[in-house]
């Protein structure tokens, strides 16, 4: 996922499984609309009611060109929202509908922003193959294919070369969608 994602748990303990589900849903919505500038998801367990369990609230905020989308089930008293995953599903479904409306209002024309380029360094190539790996400045290892190297420069790259990279989420984890030789 290339857009900044912030996850907030209110009045409940953070859950790695819930975080994974949120990341998955945010990645899906980003594939639908890659112009999203920021995504903030809040999951909240407000309070117990006498006749029912915790009713979870989910809120999805998307910053988009020329607007902001806020979707959630803040006031809903739906018993299905006793399950936080159902509350999350409903909030993302509402955000997707609003995002579709936003695109229609813009006439389907949305300026796409280039993803931020992250500094990195080539760490290794796989012998006889058209791919390798690089390390981002934060230490994360990222796969890259020769087709991602800008200007057909794959053959000129060497281990240790500094690069600038656009990273996207691939089927097997993060991968470089564009590799620019630094300097």
UniProtKB/TrEMBL annotation:
CDD domains membership: RaiA (cd00552)
Checking InterPro entries in the record gives:
CSD (IPR011129), CSP_DNA-bd (IPR002059), NA-bd_OB-fold (IPR012340), RHF-like (IPR036567), RHF/RaiA (IPR003489)
- Please name the GO terms that the record assigns under molecular function: nucleic acid binding
Q: Which residues form the CSD domain?
A: 117-181
Q: Which GO terms describe its cellular component?
A: cytosol
Q: Name one Pfam family in it.
A: Ribosomal_S30AE
What name appears for this protein in its UniProt entry? Answer: HPF/RaiA family ribosome-associated protein
Q: Which organism is it from?
A: Neoroseomonas soli
């Amino acid at each position: 996922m290339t857009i900044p994602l912030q996850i907030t748990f209110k009045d409940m303990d953070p859950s790695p499984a819930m975080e994974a589900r949120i990341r998955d849903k945010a990645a899906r919505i980003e594939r639908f609309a890659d112009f999203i500038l920021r995504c903030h998801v809040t999951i909240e367990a407000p309070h117990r009611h006498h006749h029912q369990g915790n009713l979870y609230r989910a809120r999805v905020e998307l910053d988009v060109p020329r607007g902001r989308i806020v979707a959630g089930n803040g006031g809903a008293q739906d018993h299905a929202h006793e399950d936080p995953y159902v509350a999350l599903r409903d909030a993302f479904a509402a955000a997707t509908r609003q995002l579709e409306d936003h695109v229609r209002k813009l006439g389907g024309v949305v300026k796409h922003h280039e993803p931020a380029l992250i500094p990195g360094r080539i760490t290794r190539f796989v012998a006889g193959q058209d791919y390798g790996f690089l390390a981002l400045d934060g230490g994360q290892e990222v796969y890259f294919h020769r087709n991602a190297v800008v200007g057909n420069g794959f053959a000129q790259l060497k281990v240790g070369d500094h690069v600038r990279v656009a990273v996207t989420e691939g089927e097997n984890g993060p991968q470089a969608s564009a590799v620019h030789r630094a300097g």
